[in-house]
Amino acid sequence: MFAARPLVKSFCLVPIFLMVGCSGAAGKRVVLYCAQDQEFAELILPEFTKGTQIRVDPKYDTEADKSVSLYTELVKEKARPRCDVHWNNEILSTIRLQRQGLLDPYESPSAVRYPASAKAKDHTWHAFAARARILIVNTKLVKEAERPRSLLELTEPRWKGRFAMAKPLFGTSATQAACLFEVLGPDKAKEFYRGLRDNEVNIEPGNKQVAEGVGAGKYAAGITDTDDAMEEDGAGHPVTIVFADRDRPKSERMGTLFIPNTVAVIHGCPNPDGARKLVDFLLSPEVEGRLAETASHQIPLNPQVKANLPKEILRPEAVKTMNVDFEKAADLWDEAQTFLRNEFSRP
Fold it and tell me: Considering the entire predicted model, what is its pTM?
């Protein structure tokens, strides 16, 4: 079992204040649609207001419809946007918004140090602070030698009825499905999800509930994100993390899937100047470092950030990563969602 760690409660973010400044935007507000977990966003956003005098009015979604509800609202509000900045907890819905012309280009100075893969070619979105899709295993129910090493093992008879996943129509669970459609091909991906269904996978509303179920011993294993798994670790529950498919040969496309947060300025937003300042703030090394050192332990993409991650959290360079083309995965979103809705929405 992992050792519990205290939540980091205070930080010095003076460099961010110097960077974003206190321009004539004082007294204005920025509306943020935020799919990041509220408890972690609320650790960060007050520092932006303190440094700029720009109030942030965040709108959050729920664990059950993670990222999808905000995407739907942004599409509905296209003609008259209410949102200035979209902080998404994944990338595919952001790409879909980009393709509909809902995002404004902005080449943030805070993004200079990020790799090219973390930026849209037209600068309409930036990626930062990744999480890995992993397997969480109850150490009291599953001996070390019996723990799954691959996501695909969950279709084996020994796991029948003993594991859980979030409904694959929302958030990172839906993103993972579209990525598997891209990497495995639609036919093999459909075979995999049918295998999970036939193996009596337990469906939970969100990744947090999956992790909690494994931590409580309700399930032997589950598919979730590193941040939700680490919360169970921090609570002292008997769990361990398995970076699924981390040992795959380099010649294969399967591997551990890392999903970044993304941030974007909404096209036609009410406060574009304030929106750009908030994007600069969120992409700053200080904020990525802070997200890494809170209980969420999100993985920095900026190589400048030397965060003190726990040993259980592996960076992409330490494992075989999934070789996924996010643009092509976005192309497969509708096909994946239609299939999964049919398979997992029926009684």
Answer: 0.89
